[in-house]
Specification:
The complex is a heterodimer of chains A (about 210) and B (about 280).
Chain A lengths: L1 H16 L11 H11 L11 H5 L10 H10 L2 H5 L3 H4 L5 H5 L6 H14 L7 H17 L4 H10 L3 H8 L1 H14 L13 H15 L1
Chain B lengths: L1 E4 L10 H13 L3 E4 L8 H7 L1 H18 L3 E3 L2 H15 L15 E3 H5 L2 H10 L8 E5 L8 H4 L9 H8 L3 E2 L18 H18 L3 E4 L2 H9 L11 E3 H10 L16 H6 L5
Parallel strand pairs in B: 1-2, 1-3, 3-4, 5-6, 5-7, 7-8
Classes of the chains: A mainly alpha (about 210), B alpha/beta (about 280).
């Protein structure tokens, strides 16, 4: 409770100090409409019953709780959401969506915020997770399928990742893990490539074309 | 009977043993599985994290290939199943266009639900040579297979029973527990291992408290996650079986079956020997 209160005061002070306090009339509706249009989620229907937050297995690790995410959208606080830890630690386990009495698609909304954050210039709060998703798609583009060993190797080659893993001691755990997998014959070092890899790469080009 | 089989990337890598047991079980049940020709990855969590369009387009390629074959799809991976259904629904609603023809006339079956249908269960019970008596297990479904119920079509999403029925058919004693569909956190293992470990450790602890000797799963990621979590524990192993491994064991009662389990981290062989299910 205290941390939430602290976060709120921090958000408030940031808002005031930046001198960009928005008028009530300007708040929300534009961002809310856009989010509703993009996700098909009935975001305006949320009455803050907190069932989503209570069902969420990782709400403990979130700075903006699931019900607050929906409220923030109603208020139009886009940057606070894109800058949150929440959008990256969500597991998309769909508990929130399943138990919402008003059929607000909470998980889908959080995922959409994640894709907005990935396309924005705001630095992701969980860098490794953000880089991991991108690496997964890169590997998919390379082979058409994803090989676990190659995926991890590609992830470690991304700038800053290996350094961060060394600092946190994660690298040691991962090497041990890799050895266990190797001993058990679970690691396949030769990736399989789709025959129609050109077709798959074409999809990516089209997607980039769409965006510009 | 013939079905299009979509194994998914995991079954070519870490869950290679799952693939072998699936092929054996379907062979026993006289169902021909035809692997979708040149299938590609469904995009998993990454695609729908970064681009909703790719999350529809990537699985659509496999849907179109299966339509060309004219066969219904069956897939063992919970996430692949979820992503393919999602893609099919989005295409049918005409929210995204895809470069292939997908009419949606073929069905996407989730493997446990397909096998737990009454006529299939009957067939399974007929084929059991040596029931797995005395083996106490809990069944773990995970999240992507049952949720969101509006997409997956599970009506008993709070207490799914498909795996329970299949394990019972194999002769195992299935215990009831409250964590059937609690997420194991596999998708966040890379990046936030602390979160993943706290979720997985709780599942293992609760399974032990229930009195289970093993966990039965159908999702390759759940298996890897629950199994790998036990790699540095000397005592108190809790083997994590793919449900097809149990079915195959009951069907074949093979002396060489110990070999099937060599990819498991928490070694199930001592447990099976103690129960006189393996020699």
């Amino acid at each position: 409770m205290e941390t939430i209160a602290k976060d709120r005061t921090e958000l408030e002070s940031r808002r005031v100090s930046s001198g960009k306090r928005r008028l009530i009339g300007d708040r929300g509706s534009h961002f809310l409409k856009r989010m509703e249009g993009d996700t098909g989620a009935n975001i305006a229907a949320c009455y803050q019953c907190e069932r989503c937050t209570n069902a969420c297995p990782v709400s403990f690790y979130m700075d903006v709780k699931p019900h607050q995410v929906i409220r923030f959208i109603q208020l139009g606080w886009r940057e606070e959401l894109l800058r949150s830890v929440t959008i990256w630690v969500c597991l998309s386990c769909e508990m929130c969506t399943t138990y919402c009495p008003n059929e607000v698609a909470v998980a889908e909304t959080i995922l959409h915020l994640r894709s907005l954050a990935a396309q924005s210039t705001i630095a992701p709060r969980e860098k490794q997770l953000a880089v991991f998703h991108q690496t997964f798609l890169d590997e998919l583009q390379r082979f058409g399928r994803v090989n676990e060993a190659w995926l991890m190797a590609a992830l470690n080659r991304k700038p800053g990742i290996l350094k961060e893993k060394m600092r946190s001691g994660q690298l040691k755990t991962e090497i041990e893990l890799g050895l266990t997998l190797w001993r058990k014959g679970k690691l396949k070092l030769l990736p399989k490539r789709c025959k129609a890899i050109k077709e798959i790469r074409g999809l990516y080009r089209k997607r980039q074309g769409d965006r510009s | 009977m013939k079905l299009a089989f979509y194994p998914g990337c995991s079954l070519e890598g870490m869950a290679n043993d799952y693939a072998r047991s699936i092929l054996a079980v379907f062979n026993h049940l006289d169902i021909t599985l035809v692997e979708i020709d040149d299938w590609s990855c469904c995009g998993a969590t990454a695609a729908h994290s970064l681009s909703e369009k790719m999350a529809v387009v990537l699985p659509a390629r496999n849907l179109a290939a299966a339509e060309k074959m004219g066969l219904d799809i069956v897939t063992p991976c919970a996430n692949c199943f979820n992503r393919m259904l999602f893609s099919k629904v989005m295409i049918q609603k005409k929210i995204f266009d895809v470069p292939w023809t997908v009419t949606g006339r073929i069905q996407v079956h989730e493997m446990t639900r397909f096998l737990a249908r009454p006529e299939m269960l009957e067939r399974i019970e007929d084929r059991v040579l040596k029931p797995l008596n005395d083996l106490k297990v809990v069944c773990y479904y995970g999240c992507q297979m049952v949720r969101p119920p509006r997409l997956t079509g599970f009506t008993d999403y709070e207490n799914p029973m498909t795996l329970d029925r299949l394990a019972t058919a194999a002769g195992a004693k299935v215990l009831d527990w409250s964590y059937k569909t609690t997420c194991c956190g596999a998708s966040i293992g890379i990046g936030r291992r602390d979160i993943q470990e706290s979720l997985t450790a709780r599942l293992l602890e609760k399974a032990r408290q229930t009195g289970a000797e093993a966990i039965v799963v159908s999702c390759p990621l759940c298996q890897a996650n629950l199994d790998l979590m036990q790699r540095d524990r000397a005592s108190g192993h809790l083997p994590v079986f793919y449900f097809t491994e149990l079915l195959r064991l009951a069907f074949e009662a093979d002396d060489g079956a110990a070999e099937w389990f060599r990819m498991h981290i928490a070694d199930p062989v001592p447990l099976l020997r103690a129960k006189d299910l393996l020699r």
